[in-house]
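Example for tutorial group B:
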């Protein structure tokens, strides 16, 4: 059974940067597409970024394009989300997710993913 654990969240001033990490344990995650989502209070969980199993292909929400970068280190079973030029509207709990379909195409919907981490809080102060 694969478990996902996020880290790297915190409080940052607008314009600052954070790097989120998602570590997979229990089974190598290298065969599976993964993604990052976020959920602000009162809002539904929304797609942020996704990466293919190889890391060769990525996809971003419009709100993340040009500011966020998703990457993965399959040797370390880790997926990263580098977030730059953070804005107060980026404040949310960030979740990583894994799709249990080897080499499948990633998706942008919550229902596309099978496993979720517990989330890490990101707060951007204005």
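The residue assignment follows.
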């Amino acid at each position: 059974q694969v478990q996902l654990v996020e880290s790297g969240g915190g409080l940052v001033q607008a314009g600052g940067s954070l790097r989120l990490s998602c570590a997979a344990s229990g089974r190598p995650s290298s065969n599976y597409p993964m993604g990052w989502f976020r959920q602000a209070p009162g809002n539904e969980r929304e797609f942020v970024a996704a990466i293919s199993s190889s890391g060769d292909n990525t996809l971003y929400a419009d709100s993340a394009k040009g500011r966020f970068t998703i990457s993965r280190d399959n040797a370390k079973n880790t997926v990263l989300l580098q977030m730059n030029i953070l804005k107060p509207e980026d404040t949310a709990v960030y979740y990583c997710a894994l799709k249990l379909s080897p080499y499948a195409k990633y998706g942008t919907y919550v229902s596309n993913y099978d496993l979720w981490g517990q989330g890490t809080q990101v707060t951007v102060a204005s």
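The two ends are 40 Å apart (CA to CA). Compare this with the pattern of hydrophobic and polar residues in the output above.
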